[in-house]
Specification:
Elements: H1 4-12, E1 30-36, H2 40-53, E2 58-61, E3 77-78, H3 88-99, H4 101-105, E4 116-120, H5 123-138, E5 144-147, H6 148-154, E6 169-173, E7 177-178, H7 181-194, E8 198-200, E9 205-211, E10 214-220, E11 223-232, H8 238-243, E12 251-263, E13 271-274, E14 279-283, E15 288-299, H9 307-320, E16 329-340, E17 346-349, E18 355-359, H10 369-382
Parallel strand pairs: 1-2, 1-11, 2-8, 4-13, 11-18
Antiparallel strand pairs: 3-7, 4-6, 5-6, 9-10, 10-11, 12-15, 12-16, 13-14, 14-15, 17-18
Helix pairs in contact: 2-7, 2-10, 3-10
Length: about 425
């Protein structure tokens, strides 16, 4: 479909022969499953429900257009360098799914496994990274501990003479890397559509149909839609959407900003993170540096950036690679993060029969896309959590079972 000859032919004939990648159906009144949210997680869930469980009578409801939410508003990084047993096997499953994704759904998502390098700047941080690397190996992931000399061979342009933030080494995951974020949405959408899933854009949920403690569907701007099972995965809008169903979540919404510089010659081999602050950077195929840092410290539903965070992020970048000081920032944007209280997500049934929830992804939403959809589909189809997602319960705080991955919850002082 997308051969080189076809691309040349369409380019010479005004690109008039391309067909839409997915249908634009009108919503029906009844489905087996409704998925609220047409981002990466929602589309992946629909795809795996159809592929793995044979459930195709599905409606994916998106209030805007596909790729307009967090799936198109992130820094494209994939990795499985987590520490805790509740998280590491899940993200390693996601990494394995990434590695076969393009062949699975027959779409070029531009997956580039160029490695992720996390720098450390103290002896204590080194010990913590060695522990993390051992946890990764125990779950089947790859991890390398590098000293300063080894990092200098890979990245000679870093500031090794910075006395305040000395680069003493780093942990590297060679299989980590980047993916074209919106292409993930397009690939899952096309593959799900071909299996019979209805993807309905410009269809905002305005309420839930509740009868005797059961969720029987939703009210939308395009009419009433009923289903035996309704599954929400709307990222930063989770609290607003689930409140319509009478659900109160342990989640806050914050803006996470990202930035892109002007195009530069290839300099950064993969992804680099600053260990003494919060700064991470990679280089796109177009040459632009893609980078980000902390979330905004206050609650917000705004998908936009602001100058104080830009200053803070750029300070972190300048601390480890002063050479970027003359690069121009071309654009910035914000995604709405659904920050859980322990920094880990939820994939669970709610207290309402027929209503499921997926959210609380904090900084980890994009890299989790394949495993999130895979495990959520398993839960919806079977009623049982997948083995690598069984700790992502909504009630885990009641029993003291928090998965406190680096303490990165919604409170700004924990970052």
């Amino acid at each position: 479909m997308h051969s080189a000859l076809r691309i040349i032919k369409e380019g010479l004939t005004g690109n008039k022969g391309w067909k839409p990648a997915w249908r634009k159906p009108d919503p029906r009144t009844q489905y087996d499953v409704i998925i609220i949210g047409g981002g990466g997680h929602g589309l992946a869930t629909a795809y795996y429900l159809a592929k793995e469980h044979g459930i195709t009578n599905i409606a994916v409801l998106e209030k805007g257009w596909l790729g307009g939410g967090n799936i198109g508003r992130n820094t494209t990084i994939i990795r499985s360098n987590y520490l805790l047993p509740g998280n590491q096997p899940f993200y390693e499953l996601s990494m394995k799914l990434w590695e076969g994704l393009e062949q699975d759904f027959n779409y070029n998502a531009m997956i580039s496994q160029r490695g992720v390098l996390n720098l450390f700047h103290s002896d204590g941080q080194r010990d913590a990274f060695v522990r993390r690397g051992n946890a990764m190996r125990l779950s089947g992931a790859d991890a390398q501990i590098l000293d300063a000399a080894a990092i200098r061979d890979i990245c000679p342009y870093l500031d090794y003479d910075n006395a305040r933030f000395p680069i003493k080494g780093g942990i590297r995951q060679p299989r980590g890397g980047t993916v074209r974020h919106d292409a993930v949405a397009w690939g899952y959408a096309r593959a799900a559509d071909r299996r019979g899933v209805d993807i309905i854009e410009n269809c905002e949920v305005t309420g839930f149909i509740m009868e005797n403690g059961h969720c029987l569907g939703v009210e939308t701007t395009r009419g009433t839609i009923r289903a035996a099972k309704t599954a929400a995965c709307v990222a930063g809008s989770s609290s607003k959407v689930m409140a319509m169903a009478g659900q109160r979540l342990p989640i806050e919404s914050h803006v996470l900003q990202a930035f892109v510089s002007e195009g530069l010659k290839p300099i950064i081999p993969g992804v680099i993170t600053f260990g003494a602050g919060h700064f991470y950077v990679s280089q796109s195929d177009k040459g632009g540096l893609v980078f980000g840092g902390d979330i905004d410290g206050y609650n917000s539903y705004a998908q936009r950036g602001n100058l104080p965070v830009l200053h803070d992020v750029c300070e972190g970048g300048m601390a480890i690679m002063p050479m970027i000081g003359r690069a121009r920032v071309l654009r910035m944007w914000g995604g709405i993060m659904d920050m859980s209280m322990d920094g880990s997500p939820f994939i669970d049934k709610t207290q309402t029969d027929g209503l499921f929830f997926n959210g609380g992804w904090c900084y980890g939403g994009f890299k989790a896309t394949p495993a999130s959809g895979f495990c959520y589909a398993h839960l919806i189809a079977t009623g049982r959590p997948h083995e690598v997602a069984q700790n992502y319960r909504l009630d885990r705080f009641l029993g003291g079972a928090a998965i406190d991955e680096k303490g990165q919850g919604a409170q700004p002082n924990l970052h």
